[in-house]
């Protein structure tokens, strides 16, 4: 990993829903300017981690530092003002507001009118379709367009870091590629650090620099994505690559060893 | 002092072979419940009549496929009723059964199939089938492969592969056509004939097939009630590998004598739940399991309320006082008994319930060394915990702790009909009807192991004047340090394993200046420790490298060191930074670290401990 001080440092975070511990002692770091991904199956605790980082949920234990400042237990709006935008799972755009209004909601905390106008032009640049639909209600957009809107809305706050929760959810494969391309461009061109949670492991491992694998609330593996794709467990359980086996068909799964 | 036993000839209910005994008890017990397995979440009972019929059809089905007397049938499956049908079915028609560990690789399976000349191979499911299919081209003796569970194989057709259900139908047809054939076949086996092969898990060299006769097994069976006299409705839980002689005896053979119902655990991960559901009357487990249960309670008590902690400490204290008196051979005073009743009612019974052992009248530990303190803890809970000792080559049991006199740190006294002596080299020798026939097709090794009727166990130990046997170590494991001091590593290792944070350890120091050890941490407990202390970690390796974890393990080692002579203290250690599974060569199927292999594999790590300043 990079030697520079990480933008986000999560250490021993434990979060629970009442008696059910969803995240049990998770630690990871996100270097400045990087794309880091957290992979995991349903219910592994990925979304909970993002919600904990952005302040929607409070951790029972552990510390989180964003740019050197402790943020655990902070209200989400304060975390957001510190430069962290959360693109939630399922997009959650404001359906009765227009696209433009939605985007302006993203810039709600900003006072620099000129900068906001610039950024509006920037997101229209990334997603021209949003400009074409600027006056339509967001609820009338397609799933892919809503996802673009959600990402754009987050960008409107000019964040240092974006949390992306399953941006590929429910989208056609072609759209998924498109959106991921733009995520990479935003990262490279705008210098926005990205923490990405995905079930589409193939996509996530292609664009991210570093990855963590989460299983039942615990990190079981971490490495650069280039090395992760070479691991047997990742291949079989996350990328669906399977040896054909002796009969040319194999249903049983090998045991995970996380090496 | 000696334990009582049977008549010493090897007959149970007047029967002298397993087929005859099985036929006898099936007739006697009829619709009583023999086995229970969980199907879609519900325990389903299998009666002795059904058990008998299915085994009969397996046997006859194999005959229909061409099985001849003394043919070897190998089974690779987790514990399930089909395993038992196959075992007793094969034996009933004069065949020989052999179990293979489900964690074995295709190469290991190929070796065993060829070494044993296996003609019929039973595979549990698709996964195990794939292993044998991969190597069958090099297994010339193989005739047919039978698959228990055909899930995922409906489209699969192969001349050599038969579904278990089809085999049963084949056997049933044979039975209808020749109704008295089975009873004739039951008479084929003679008492001194080979009944089963047990491949020793062998920590060094290729594994060898130990040959056990009907007489060996029945001689042990006479003694099946040694833990506690059987009662109607007794329950057992089967979960350790059936390829191991201890579990095989406990699950397949002992109930032929005791009539206990065998319940099959769903899988290794559900053993704690299944144990609570079944609440067995008799229970046998290896030290690793006992250590895990203890760690579980110890950890739960750490998170308990102050009142809970206080109550536990008081209750276990009362239990300990009772245990200590029992060990000294004294009866507890009436006052202490009263206190214990209260302690049991309020605390200890709940602890036992949480483990599912509240109905256990007899529990035993064996197959590996155990820390005496652990036995004492279980005794304090009020469990009749007995340590047993034996090996594959004597069909399981050689010595056991007598209930009337407990001497911790020893493995008890010889079972009935067993002679124990110590050779001039310090090796434990055994003689009795349970001493095996020898290693399969290996007269050289057999001659080394059985000399003048004495079985050379390879264990070093001593006998005291009352006949209590103490095991010091495996002969080949004894460490001689560079200073010339003899050290028995397993004593130190057992004390280390008593720590809830240490899953297993290997002490090193042969021809070295000082002792060191490699430690495998207990993932669950150490991770919990790290979380409580806010120690950041990601994966297993980073957990092992955390300074706090290193310090924790060192403090556990120091605790053990305090009880050791100076030359025996551990000076350095390293943690094994990988989660090991039974598929790994480092572990035996019963999750013990293999000393020789670990020494080789981690040579660099070990050398590192001796070169750094």
Structure characterization notes:
The complex is a heterodimer of chains A (259) and B (613). With 259 residues, chain A is an alpha/beta fold. Chain A contains ten helices and ten strands. Chain A has a six-stranded mixed sheet with strand order 6-7-8-3-9-10, sandwiched between helices. In chain A, strands 2-1-4-5 form a four-stranded antiparallel sheet, covered by helices on one side. In chain A, helix 3 runs parallel beside helix 6. The radius of gyration of chain A is 19 Å and the shape is globular. The mean pLDDT of chain A is 89. Chain B is α/β, with parallel strands linked by helices. The termini of chain B are far apart. The longest helix of chain B is centred in the middle third of the chain and has 23 residues. In chain B, helix 12 crosses helix 13. Chain B is 40% helix and 20% strand. Chain B has 21 helices and 27 strands. The relative contact order of chain B is 0.09. Chain B is globular and about 75 Å long. An eight-stranded mixed sheet of chain B has the order 7-6-5-3-4-8-9-19, with helices on both faces. In chain B, strands 12-13-14-15-16 form a five-stranded mixed sheet. The chains are: A alpha/beta (259), B alpha/beta (613).
